[in-house]
Design a protein that fits this description.
Blueprint lengths: L1 E7 L5 H15 L6 E7 L11 H9 L21 E4 L2 H10 L3 H4 L2 E3 L22 H30 L1
Parallel strand pairs: 1-2, 1-3, 3-4
Helix pairs in contact: 1-5, 2-5
């Protein structure tokens, strides 16, 4: 099993959205028996809460399923994860600092690094929490744009795992 965890700040907006979108990619590719997808937050403020209602609304309008409960990322999880996807550069920094080993820190990647249209100045998925519904829609667009590249990277990593 190849394990991917998406991480944002509170685990109620961006990371559950990325989890739902990527799980859909994995299922459509027929890899759902081989790839486990989940999400977490760098902080525990919302642990146990569902996704933000705006996240749910945007996901449902786009046809994505979601059943989410927020949780906080723990350093001990690195040992069971293959890839940790940060939604912005602040999460990337925090997760790499939390990693117990250099090998674990190397598992952390920015989501937008898988979007071929993203430039060096566009590495973050902006936090939509304090904004309008349009921010959540933009967030979804950015996440969707990175999905195919991330799926290709996971497929390639899985080949290396089994080789």
């Amino acid at each position: 099993m190849y394990r991917v965890c998406f991480v944002c700040t509170g685990n109620i907006c961006r990371s559950p959205m990325a989890e739902s979108v990527f799980r859909d990619h994995v299922e459509r590719a027929g890899l759902d028996a081989l790839v486990e997808v989940d999400s977490a937050g760098t902080g525990g403020w919302h642990e146990g809460d569902g996704a933000d209602p705006r996240t749910v609304s945007v996901l449902e309008a786009a046809g994505y399923a979601q059943d989410h409960r927020a949780r906080q990322f723990r350093a001990s999880w690195f040992s069971r994860l293959d890839l940790v996807i940060a939604l912005d550069s602040g999460h990337l920094r925090d997760l790499r600092a939390l990693a117990p080993t250099a090998q674990d820190a190397a598992k952390v990647r920015l989501l937008r690094s898988y979007d071929p249209a993203a430039t060096a100045g566009q590495v973050d998925v902006p936090d939509p929490y304090y904004g309008s519904l349009e921010g959540f829609e933009e967030c979804l667009e950015l996440i969707e744009a990175a999905g195919p590249g991330l799926l290709d990277a996971v497929r390639e990593a899985m080949k290396e795992h089994t080789a």
